[in-house]
TrEMBL record:
It holds the Pfam family CMD. It comes from Lentilactobacillus curieae. GO terms for molecular function: peroxiredoxin activity. Residues 16-101 form the Carboxymuconolactone decarboxylase-like domain. This is 4-carboxymuconolactone decarboxylase.
Length: 104
């Protein structure tokens, strides 16, 4: 997994501890546990959680990571379609708009 630096780049001066936890713990320690779960599967779970909460700016970032981690367009379409019935139709429409830009 590629070293994450988004926390430090975006919040390092403003919220250095949060940036450190984001980059070193969340992405450094948790996401790097590839023996326990693949980055691809972590991406599918993360995108599901973000869509369910309607956190679309974060969903966009994680869809890009998901694509890098091997999630295909067809898999993302199925994820959004499945979740539409559990999270709400408008969230699915929003998620499809993001996915279309990333996966086309």
């Amino acid at each position: 997994m590629k070293k994450q630096t988004a926390g430090r780049e975006k919040l390092g001066d403003f919220a250095p501890k949060f940036a450190e936890l984001n980059d070193d713990v969340l992405f450094g320690e948790v996401w790097s546990r590839e023996q326990e779960m693949s980055p691809r599967d972590r991406s599918l779970i993360t995108c599901s959680a973000l869509m369910a909460q309607g956190l679309f700016p974060q969903l966009e970032s994680h869809m890009k990571i998901a694509k890098q981690n091997g999630v295909t367009k067809d898999e993302m379409v199925e994820l959004i379609t499945q979740l539409a019935f559990y999270t709400g139709w408008p969230k699915a429409w929003s998620a499809f708009g993001i996915a279309k830009e990333i996966f086309e």
